[in-house]
Specification:
With 187 residues, this protein is mainly β. It has strands spanning 2-3, 12-15, 18-28, 36-43, 49-55, 59-63, 65-76, 79-84, 90-94, 110-116, 119-124, 128-136, 149-154, 159-163, 171-175, 180-184. The chain has no helices and 16 strands.
């Protein structure tokens, strides 16, 4: 067990039974009151941000989390089969750890997975992916007075709003966290 003085930004802790990652950590000494630590942390299970005030010297359970880069091979039921690129060992990662970014993932992409012991506790797709547009409606000619967006389907089957000039076969960059169009990929 660790105390509040052992915590840093990026540390993983167990808080109220959930695993959280510390986003902000400040030591405060307000006037003639007792010192405390103010922490802002992200819950890895649901992605919500919590703020909590810890007493100075309070005991906190710190977790040792190892983050590995794995190659996504294929989906098998409610798991993704991913391969360690160094040992070639295959690991089964639960689908729910990826959240909404799963819809932008293609096979052979490199993903980051965090393990506590041998259990996968967090996973993230690449921040930016390049995917080909497989279907989109034709734009209305002359409608360029403002930023006109239209729906497009990409090669993974996900739908994204794209500008009117994007056509079928265009490769685009997508921000997987927000699920939004970024720009076209120049060939």
């Amino acid at each position: 067990m660790a105390t509040t003085s052992d915590i840093n930004i990026g540390t993983y802790i167990r808080f109220n039974g959930d695993i959280c990652q510390m986003m902000e950590w400040q030591h405060r000494t307000p006037g003639n009151l007792r010192a405390f630590y103010q922490g802002k942390m992200r819950n890895l299970r649901n992605g919500k941000i919590n703020e909590h005030r810890f007493r100075s010297g309070e005991v906190i359970e710190v977790l040792r989390v190892e983050v590995h880069e794995l190659q996504y091979l294929y989906r098998e039921g409610e798991n993704l089969v991913c391969m360690d690129q160094v040992t070639y060992e295959q690991k089964y990662i639960p689908v729910e750890l990826f959240g909404d970014s799963l819809r932008f993932m293609k096979e052979e992409m490199v993903v980051q997975v965090g393990f506590e012991s041998e259990t996968a506790i967090m996973a993230s797709a690449p921040k930016v992916v390049e995917l080909e547009v497989t279907y989109t409606e034709n734009a209305v000619k002359g409608d360029t007075s403002n930023k006109v967006m239209k729906a497009a389907t990409v090669s993974t089957g996900a739908e994204v709003s794209v500008p009117s000039f994007v056509e079928i076969g265009t490769v685009i960059r997508i921000d997987t966290e927000a699920g939004t169009y970024m720009d076209r990929v120049k060939k």
